[in-house]
Design brief:
Largest sheet: 8 strands, parallel, barrel
CATH superfamily of the largest domain: Aldolase class I
CATH class of the largest domain: Alpha Beta
Number of helices: 16
Strand order of the largest sheet: 1-2-3-4-5-6-7-8
CATH architecture of the largest domain: Alpha-Beta Barrel
Radius of gyration: 26 Å
Strand content: 5-15%
Helix content: 40-55%
Structural class: alpha/beta
Number of strands: 10
Order of helices and strands: HEHEHEHEHHEHEHEHEHHEHHEHHH
């Protein structure tokens, strides 16, 4: 799309405080780890999708540049095991650029099925083996640091012997002290853990806390000469800070960020993978094409039977929808100039067109005449003065945004559209 000659450069009409004191793009390479098909399914409200849906979600991960994913906990039962094997084989067959991982407690009964799934499928699996680390968890479980170390070492030794790459996951890392984590992490690394996963299991962290924890862990690894060990960040959204926490962890040196489509997961959910991708893209930190981002969210919603909230960023039905007169008038003026770039940004911080969506203007009790005329023009209906006045009058007497059918009833009353011609009940959009 060509820039209209009369429009000033972007930096002259959008002053961006985000770049006044920006944090630089992290110099290190990083990956995204999708937990939708494992940790996300721990939400008590989701449905564990059938295998066919899981395979479609894997395809969308590949399309979005998500290069690793947790595909299940094979030790949970026969169906879980079979699905992991099937997904591994599918990844091989389709040559998807998604490295699969599988979860297990630091219990041999959980780890053995992961090793068997790797052997049976012929696909390398990263073992994500987890145990609680925080003092509060130790108190509740009647554990101590010695028990955690012994249990972890036994699990890691077995996994390494079975040829599994080990990502060692400490639950509730964010609420664990350095004196607790130091011996645990040292033991894990000494026995072959290739990755340490720092977890904000209960959504306790703030961005400052995420940066502090990642920075401390980096220092520990450097101090013991474990330069090849990778750090990962896994967060939850209990305080509504999961996405900024993930960004902060990345800034501090995390090399893999975890998230789930639609933010599904226990309690209020995990870090939203789609919102994280959206922000990394707009920040200029993630270069991959995200045209499949909305279909990915829609597929997770359909497969897990979790509705997308109407006000959900980017993918929600209201994300680019307005019936407010002032907002609509500004968008309409931009469109009449033939400037879709301007129309997409004058009342939106996220450019809809860059993600396969568009601005929607509707008619409600806060609308003006511009909404009405725009709605009619978009549908090829003559903007007769009497009709426009009647539609606006109808809107002002309602406490909601008018549905297409309600507007078309007024149109039909003016003889401009047969009352039954409501496009067979299909909702119109503009």
């Amino acid at each position: 799309m060509k820039t209209p000659k009369h429009r000033p450069p972007e930096q002259e009409i959008i002053y961006d405080w985000n770049v006044v004191q920006p944090r630089p793009r992290p110099p290190h390479a990083f990956e995204l780890f999708d937990e939708t098909l494992r940790d996300g399914l721990q939400s008590p409200s989701v449905t564990d999708p059938p295998l066919e849906d899981k395979l479609e979600i894997l395809e969308l991960m590949h399309a979005l540049g998500i290069r690793s994913a947790d595909i299940g906990l094979p030790g949970a039962g026969q169906r879980a095991f079979d699905d992991v094997v099937a997904m591994c084989r599918y990844i091989q067959k389709r040559k998807l650029k998604v490295s699969p991982g599988a979860a297990a407690r630091t219990v041999l009964a959980d780890i053995k099925p992961v090793a068997e799934a790797q052997q049976r499928s012929g696909q390398k699996l990263v073992l994500y083996t987890f145990i609680g680390s925080s003092p509060i968890r130790q108190f509740a479980e009647d554990w101590d640091v010695g028990f955690i170390v012994r249990t972890s070492v036994e699990a890691i030794d077995f996994a390494v012997k079975e040829g599994l790459e080990v990502a060692y996951v400490t639950e509730d890392t964010v609420r664990s002290s350095p004196s607790t984590l130091d011996p645990i992490f040292r033991a894990a690394v000494e026995h072959g853990a290739a990755r340490l996963v720092l977890c904000d299991t209960v959504g306790h962290a703030t961005p400052d806390g995420a940066r502090a924890l990642v920075g401390w862990a980096k220092g520990l690894l450097a101090g013991i000469g474990a330069k090849g060990v990778k750090l990962e960040w896994h967060g939850h959204n209990d305080r509504g800070l999961a996405v900024p926490n993930a960004v902060a962890a990345l800034e501090a040196g995390a090399e893999r960020l975890h998230g789930c489509g639609l933010g599904v997961g226990e309690r209020v959910g995990n870090t939203s993978m789609d919102q994280l991708l959206l922000n990394l893209k707009l920040m200029g930190w993630f270069d991959h094409d995200l045209s499949k981002l909305v279909p990915y969210v829609q597929k997770v919603s359909q497969a897990c039977r979790i509705p997308i909230p109407v006000n959900y960023p980017l993918s929600g039905s209201d994300a680019f929808r307005t019936a407010t007169g002032v907002h609509a008038a500004a968008i309409i003026k931009a469109q009449k100039r033939g400037d879709e770039w301007l129309a997409d940004r004058v009342y939106s911080g996220v450019p809809a067109g860059e993600f396969g969506k568009h601005q929607q203007i509707e008619i409600g009790h806060m609308s003006g005449m511009s909404n009405v005329k725009y709605w009619l023009e978009k549908r090829g209906i003559p903007c007769e003065e009497a009709l426009c006045q009647d539609i606006l009058k109808r809107a002002k007497t309602c406490h909601w945004t008018l549905k297409d059918e309600e507007i078309l009833e007024v149109v039909a009353a003016h003889g401009l559209l047969a009352r039954g011609a409501v496009l067979k009940g299909k909702r119109l959009s503009g």
